[in-house]
Amino acid sequence: xxxxxxxxxxxxxxxxxxxxxxxxxxxxxxxxxxxxxxxxxxxxxxxxxxxxxxxxxxxxxxxxxxxxxxxxxxxxxxxxxxxxxxxxxxxxxxxxxxxxxxxxxxxxxxxxxxxxxxxxxxxxxxxxxxxxxxxxxxxxxxxxxxxxxx
Length: 150
Hints:
Elements: H1 6-17, H2 23-30, H3 34-46, E1 66-74, H4 79-90, E2 95-100, E3 107-113, H5 116-127, E4 133-140
Antiparallel strand pairs: 1-3, 1-4, 2-3
Helix pairs in contact: 1-2, 2-3
């Protein structure tokens, strides 16, 4: 793994803000030449610190203007139940994120759909149809004052 010194930390911060920034601009922002900056970025990529780059797409344009967090409890805490659930979730395009967590439930999902009716169908026909699901608690996202997902 590459050392995360202060300059690498600055590079990572800038790339999280704008992954398409030119090496010249990035170098200016962190106080390096474009070539020195390029070498550091390549090393961060090679060592897996930077795993990739993504486009941030407006969910409303993609038909996902209604977003929720969904807490999911399973009927059993064994690995087989987790695999059944995770495979089903992987096939559901409405699930934008899936996190296995600790606490009173096993998973937190971020769901993006067009509207409340689409969510109701997803809740009943997709998540509700998974045999190992025991409890569901929906949290409607009203706004996201800070969202650093890329």
